[in-house]
Amino acid sequence: MSNAQAMQQLATETGPAAAPCCPPLNERPFTAAEAETAARMFKALGDPVRLRLFSAVASHEGGEACVCDISDVGVSQPTVSHHLKKLKEAGLLTSERRGTWVYYRVEPSVLAAMGKLLTTAAAAA
Q1: Ramachandran angles phi, psi of 95, nearest 5°
Q2: Considering the entire predicted model, what is its pTM?
């Protein structure tokens, strides 16, 4: 399964409630499949330029950003396009072409799933 397929499956399965791909890190050890899914997300974000671009899109007003608004990350425009493509292939971003510009959006279910992965599991009562 490709990175994009795995993240799209995650987004489809989670829907609006955004169940995590994996349990919180301190709940139990990951299964092999859970580790693969989490690793895909973190691998895509493991590059500082990609992380900056992901953050720029996620924090942009209106929840989406034109490539023209987020290209100032210290690398050339073709390199920005390459990194945005990698984030999109990992299923972390979606895009829409409007005229000559491409607008990127972070999938809310992906953000929620990543957040749940990094939260602390509730203590058993």
Answers
A1: -140, 160
A2: 0.73
